[in-house]
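Appendix B. One record, verbatim.
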Amino acid sequence: QVQLGESGGGLVQAGGSLRLSCGLSGGTFSRYAVGWFRQAPGKEREFVAAISRSGSTVYDDSVKGRFTMSRDNARNTVYLQMNSLKFEDTAVYYCAADPDAYYFSDGYMPSRPDQYDYWGQGTQVTVSS
């Protein structure tokens, strides 16, 4: 059974940085595309970033230039480095894995929540203004 677990969230002042981690167990990590999503109170879950099997990345415009996603297949882990954090980045952050990525090109990077089968429990990021 595939399981995902996020860590690294917390409280930070605006302009600060955090690094989120997401570990995967129970599956062949290198076969999955992985995404980060976030959900603020009263809002829909929204796309943040995704990384393909080959390591290509895509970002939402709201975080482009501030967030960097990476993966370490040897550690079955993806990371989200978040710099220059803003108050509006406050949300619960979720990582998700798409096993169907194995059947697409290695540059495949899904960006919709319904494209992902496995989800972590989320980690809270709070940015104080």
